[in-house]
Specification:
globular, disordered N terminus, nine-stranded antiparallel sheet, 15 helices, about 675 residues, Glycosyltransferase, alpha+beta
């Protein structure tokens, strides 16, 4: 017996030793800033090609009437290759379901059509690839030519642009032939909701050119898609590029993050692009769509109502705010006296719905997002428009409470990919925050005291029920079970932290950052599983920061941001893996930005002109700021800095200083923008 005990002890010690070594190695790996790409002074990122080939990647870029998933790469011999998958969201196909956007892939490179000195261009070597709203490829061909390619969508037209430039670097002149080409693809009329569609591939600036030393010539390829009775839009590719860069400039110059960590600043700037660009001009109004070659001209209760909608008022992008309001009003069409479930998704430009997963807790998602959007917008008219939707969703959730006081649903936002039981942690947490927001909003809208008191009572009871029903020890951590029968750690244990529920903060954070859940790509959806969805990592980082574990969160935030911005798949947060192969779905970029607005700066709207904020300045930073915050119908700058060993808060609007105050760590600053009052 003693021998067996001793043997068992040796095994246990050995096991602990191995786990310690693995943890150390893992920690070392995660702490390293692996970078394929580098940051440039002009705000771009670039990949300087050296021995790190072959390598392939993909990026999505969108305009109001088209989206492109560009798959590109550099082969082992240094040559460039690409395939563009073009999606026309408003060219609907049959059956007209969620995924019914006309999509075509084209692989022909513009340089393959060109001759130089009456021969094809050969022996190309890529020098660099640069991203900043467009994708720019620079190459050389022998000692004679410099080649550039630039890819970007039109902001307003149903078209996608590629600009090719040839520069003669030889000592002798050369002859360049650019062919005239106007190709038309007519789609099968039986497969389009409006018959056949015409896809045009046009070359502009064709002709014969003699280039002297250091002369250059550019031509462009424009892909467009129209209905049979429509004319191909007149296009000037240079104008389209200017409009694209103007959009990038507008987005980058609102809601500007300034910290000592340049990786965070840059990833934040890029995330704003992806969050803002993926909005489509449908017959049902502007609709923000996730993208990913699958999700367009449609809205979802999670992606649009919960994730991205509450973000747009901070950014101040007018078209984004219109899309958010439009999404909530579309959902409002489905409120009913019988309290039948609201659809998970409104598809096909607003003409149909998808509810294939049943009730996913959609009413809680919508109430949470609509209430926060209304508050941050600072617009009484918008808030009044949305009140009936918020009110209905809250009542729907109340009617779905089980005997233990938490909200029941058929599934959750992962739609059965992982078990969620009859009642899950996400839905009840969202409902809790929605009640809190509704109280603030209702007070500003002059709603009845009895109704708001009832919401307060319901919130108190719900918070207690969440603790009793979901609070548990899982995997040795005092955290939450995701549903009643759950016995394995789940990434979504993070969500109470984002809703201001901190009772199990220590155990939850320890679990999130343990080897059980944290992987090289952020949080595993389920402990021990290779699957990850970025959205849970983004929620977790926001929640940990909001809870005050600033330095711990910062390490993981930097690691994650560095990987997404400068690693092997850039430059945006992604959806998931293996599903979708890390598509650049756009709402995840909104969630990334909310790590800073609601996590690092701790902004919590408490009225149409009021907010609380709890800034979390890391111990290694002397200063951080968030400038041109367009929330609450203002244009605010918030600066946090260390001064004489204290934290100084300054809030200003233009040249006018509204608030200056010294605070302690974790102190809540209460701001009333009507009179600049702070408490």
């Amino acid at each position: 017996m003693n021998v067996m005990t001793r043997s068992h002890l040796h095994q246990k010690v050995a096991s602990i030793f191995i786990m310690t070594i693995l943890c150390c190695l893992t920690s070392k790996l995660f702490s390293q800033d692996y970078r394929r790409w580098q940051m440039n002074q002009d705000g771009s990122i670039s990949w300087e090609i050296n021995n790190n080939i072959p390598h392939n990647d993909h990026i999505e870029m969108s305009g109001k009437r088209i989206s492109c998933v560009l798959r590109y790469g550099v082969a082992a011999d240094g040559s460039f290759h690409s395939t563009r998958s073009l999606v026309w969201p408003m060219l609907r196909t049959i059956p007209n379901n969620t995924h019914a956007s006309l999509t075509r892939q084209f692989a022909l490179d513009g340089f393959e059509l060109v001759t130089v000195n009456y021969k094809p261009i050969v022996s190309e070597k890529v020098i660099s690839i640069t991203i900043k709203g467009t994708l720019l490829v620079k190459s050389i061909a022998g000692n004679n030519l410099e080649l550039t390619r630039e890819y970007f969508p039109s902001t307003t037209l149903p078209g996608y642009c590629e600009v090719y430039t040839i520069k003669n670097t030889s000592k002798n002149g050369c002859f360049v032939e650019i062919p005239k080409s106007k190709n038309i693809y007519s789609t099968d009329p039986a497969k389009g909701t409006e018959g056949s569609y015409a896809l045009h591939v046009d070359i502009f600036n064709e002709g014969n050119y003699k280039l002297q030393t250091n002369d250059s010539i550019s031509f462009s390829v424009f892909y467009s898609g129209v209905k049979a009775n429509e004319q191909v839009p007149a296009v000037d590719v240079n104008t389209e590029k200017a409009k694209r860069l103007e959009l990038i400039h507008e987005v980058w110059n609102n809601l500007v993050l300034e910290t000592p960590d340049t990786v965070l600043n840059r990833e934040f700037a890029f995330a704003k692009i992806r969050a803002a660009e993926s909005i489509f001009e449908t017959k049902g109004g502007p609709m923000h769509g996730p993208g990913g070659e699958s999700y367009y001209a449609a809205i979802w209760a999670n992606d649009q109502a919960e994730y991205i909608g509450p973000f747009f008022p901070y950014l101040g992008y007018d078209y984004g705010n219109k899309a958010a309001l439009n999404a909530y009003l579309h959902f409002a069409r489905f409120i009913n006296n019988d309290y039948k479930p609201i659809p998970s998704s409104i598809i096909a430009e607003g003409t149909d719905i998808w509810d294939g997963a049943g009730d996913r807790g959609d009413a809680a998602m919508i109430a949470y997002g609509a209430a926060r959007y209304a508050l941050v917008s600072g617009d009484t008219k918008k808030a009044a428009q949305l009140w009936s939707l918020i009110e209905w969703c809250l009542e729907y959730c109340r009617r779905k409470l089980n005997k233990e006081g938490v909200v029941t649903s058929d599934s959750d936002e992962l739609e059965g990919r992982f078990p969620s039981g009859n009642a899950n942690l996400c839905t009840s947490s969202l409902y809790y925050d929605a009640l809190i927001s509704a109280i603030y909003l209702g007070e500003d809208l002059g709603k009845g005291k009895m109704q708001l008191t009832l919401y307060k009572e319901q919130a108190v009871k719900l918070k207690s029920a969440i603790e009793k029903y979901f609070g548990s020890k899982i995997g040795g951590f005092d955290t939450y079970k995701y549903y009643k029968e759950n016995d394995t750690l789940r990434a979504w244990i993070c969500i109470p932290l984002t809703m201001g529920i901190y009772e199990r903060k220590a155990g939850t954070i320890a679990a999130l950052f343990s080897p059980e859940l944290w992987t090289q790509d952020g949080l595993a959806s389920l402990a021990g599983d290779k699957t990850f969805w970025d959205r849970s990592t983004l929620y977790a980082l926001r929640g940990v920061l909001a809870s005050g574990e600033t330095d711990k969160a910062l390490n993981f935030l930097h690691y994650y941001s560095n990987r997404r911005l400068l690693g092997d798949h850039v430059p945006y947060p992604v959806e998931a893996y293996p599903e979708g192969n890390q598509r650049h779905l756009s709402a995840e970029s909104g969630l990334y930005c909310r790590i800073f607005t609601e996590g690092l700066f701790g902004i919590r709207p408490t009225g149409l002109n009021n907010f609380n904020f709890t800034p979390r300045l890391p111990s290694s930073w002397s200063r951080m700021s968030l400038r041109h915050i367009r929330a609450f119908d203002h244009d605010l700058d918030i600066v946090i800095e260390r001064e004489d060993g204290k934290k100084k808060v300054t809030i200003s609007e233009g040249d006018k200083v509204l608030i200056t105050k010294f605070i302690k760590d974790g102190e809540i600053v209460k701001v009333n923008l009507l009179n600049g009052v702070t408490r």
